[in-house]
Amino acid sequence: MKAIAKRGFIDVMAALSIIIAPDSRLKGHCEPVERVDKEVRKLMDGMLDAMHKHQGIGLAAPQVGVLKRVIVIDMAREGEEPAPMRIANPEIVWTSEEEVLGEEGCLSLPQQFGDVVRPKKARVRYLDQDNQEREIEAEDMLARCILHEMDHLEGILFVDHISALKRNIILRKLTKMKKLMEAAE
Ligand code: ZN
User: Fold this and answer.
1) pLDDT tens string 66-105
2) Nearest to 45 by CA among 78, 72, 80, 18
C-alpha cells in the first residue's frame, strides 16, 4: 500500500487486478481527484478493461487498490454497443424516497449475491473524462449500480447492507476461496 502510494497511482495500472474481499484495502475512504487529467483517464480506461474482462457492469477505484473517488460503469448487455461511463468525484444531489429491493453482486465478492434496498432513483453530479461537470438522473439498475460503486468510495460493500449472518457466511466463503487460490499459486 505504502509503496504504491509513493510511486503514484498510475503505476498500479500495469497490473490492474481486482482485490477480493475480505481485504482492508476495500475498507478505506477515498480522496477526490483534483481534476480529471491524463493520469485519471488512464486509470478509468484501465478500470474499464479490468471490469469488461470480468463481465462486470461497474467498478470502483479501491477495487483495484487506488483510493481515489473514481468509478466506471457500463450497463450494455452482451451483444450491445459498449456504453462506458467514466465518473470522478460523484456526489449525490437527490435520491427518491421510493426504495426498491434488488439483487447485487460485486467483482470483489465473486459468485456471491445479496438483496439490498436502495433508492429507486438518484441524481448524481460528477466530473466526466473531460473534466466537465455533469449531472444525471438514474433509475432502477443504473441508480443501483452507481450507488453500489459510490459505497465502495466509503469502504462500504454490498454485504454491509445485509444481515450479519449472511455477511459472515459470504466473507467466510471468500476467505476460504482466497486461501485455496493462494495455495494454488
Ligand atoms: Zn462492488
Assistant:
1) 999 999 999 998 888 889 999 999 999 999 999 999 999 9
2) 72
Predicted pLDDT at 155 = 98
Please give all residues whose CB falls under 5 A of ion ligand 1, grouped by chain where several chains appear: 106
Please state whether beta strands 99-106 and 84-95 pair in parallel, antiparallel, or not at all (unpaired). Answer: unpaired
φ/ψ of 143, rounded to 5, equals -60, -45
Please identify which of the residues 39, 97, 139, 149 carries the catalytic annotation.
149
Distance 84 CA to ligand 1 centre (A): 16
Alpha helices in the chain (DSSP H): 2-7, 38-53, 140-152, 164-184
Measure the CA–CA gap between 151 and 81, rounded to whole angstroms: 27
Is 149 an active-site residue? yes
pTM here is 0.90
Residue 130 Cα, ligand 1 centroid: separation in angstroms? 25
